[in-house]
Amino acid sequence: MGRKELSRTAAVLTALALGLTACGSGDDGGAEGSDTVRVTVANHVWTDTIKEAIPEFEEETGLKVELTQLGEDQLSDQYNVKLNAGSDEIDVMMYRPLQEGRLFADNGYLADLTDRVEANADWEWSDFQEGPVTATTFEDKVVGVPIITEREVLYYRKDLLDAAGLEVPATMEELEAAAKTISEANPGTAGFVARTGKSAAVTQFSSFLFSFGGDFIEDGESAVSSKEAKEAYAFYGGLINNYGPENVSTDMSWSEAMAIFTQGGAAFYTEADSLYKNATDPAKSKVADTVGFAPLPAGPAGSKPYNIPSWSLAINEASQNQDNAWKFIEWATSKDMTMQIQQGGVPGPRASVWADAGGTSTYPEDLAEAISISAENGVGHDRPLVKSVGEAREIVGAPIVAAITGADSDAEADTAHEAFEKFLEGEQ
C-alpha cells in the first residue's frame, strides 16, 4: 500500500473513530425516538449558517443536534463505510443528488420522504423548484430535500459589448457572432471561455446540449451521437477553438476558466451562478466593475440551462430516529432558514424566496433576473443520471475535447456513443 492509500485509509479510520466516540458519549443517539439527532454534513457556507442557528432549533424542539462536519472526500469515505454496513449511526445526511444520489437510492440508503414532504402545508413542498425536486426524486419517491441550487448563466463584459456596439446575446448564434466580433477587435482577448477538461466540462456543456434539443440518455439508451448532441458538441467546442484563449489547455475546470475571465482575458464565460462572487469581488477580479449576467442564450430548443441541487438533505434508511431527523430537515429547509441562508450568498431552492425582494437583495440585479428565468426553464440534471457518474463523465466528455482541439467531434461522438452504450448495459 502506497503513502496516498495509507493516508486515505487513516482519514477514514479517524472519521469513523470520531463518530464512534461521539455515539458512545453516554446518550442513546441510536435509539428509536432519541432526543439526539445525528447530522452529517459537508464543509460548506450553508453548513456554517446552519451551525449558528442550531441552538434555536434545539430550544424550539427540545432536541439535541450532534453535528459531524467533514470535507467532501472524508464525507464520501464515511458514507461508503457506514451506509454499506447498514449502520444506524447517521440520521440526517447531506449528499450530492447528481453525483451519488442514484447510487444511494438504488442501494436503499435513502428513506422515502414522499409522505413527509406532503404532510405540512405550511412548509410547502410545492414551493421547491421543479428541477431540484426532479433530481431528488427516485422512481417516483422523494428521497431528498434540496438545500443548495445552481444554474448556468452567461457572464459577460459590459465594457467590451459597449465598445463593440453590441447587445447582450439572446441566442447561441448571437453569442458566436459577438465572440467573433470582440475577439477580432481586441487582440489578446478571447471572445469566449469555459471549462475544457474532459470531465469538468460536462456539467457546463450540458446546458448547451439541452438547448440544442439533446440529452446524454434518452429512453435508457445513449443519446450522445444524436444529431442534436453532435451539433451541441461542435458548437461548444467550436466557440473555444475559434474564439477562445490562445493555446488553451484542455484540462481547465471552473477555477482556471474563471481566472481567465476575471483577469480580463475573455468577453463571455458560461458558468454556475453560485460562483458569481469570484467575478464581482474587486479583490479577486480585475473586471469586477464591468461584469454583467444574463440567462444562457437560446439554442434551437430554447434556453435550457441546468437547474440543479448541488447538495440536499436525506434521512438514512437505517436510522432508528427518522421522525426527529425529519424535524431537523423541515426546520433547516423552512422558508425562514432558506431566506437567511440565501441572503448570505447561498442560492436556495424555494421559488417564494427568489420572488421575495429580500431573497435577491444581496445579488446583482441582472444576476437575480437571470436566475429567475433560468429556474423556470431549467433542467434537473447536468450530467448523466447513472450510478458511476465519474466514469460516465469521462466517456461523454471526450467529444467536447475533440471539438475544442479542432478534431472530428462527430466521429468522437460516435465512438463515445458505443462506449456509453456498453457502460449503460453494465449499469443494469
From TrEMBL:
Any one Pfam family match given in the protein's UniProt record, by short name: SBP_bac_1
PROSITE patterns associated with the record: PROKAR_LIPOPROTEIN
UniProt-listed InterPro entries: Bact_solute-bd_prot1, SBP
Stated name of the protein: Sugar ABC transporter substrate-binding protein
Lineage: Bacteria, Bacillati, Actinomycetota, Actinomycetes, Micrococcales
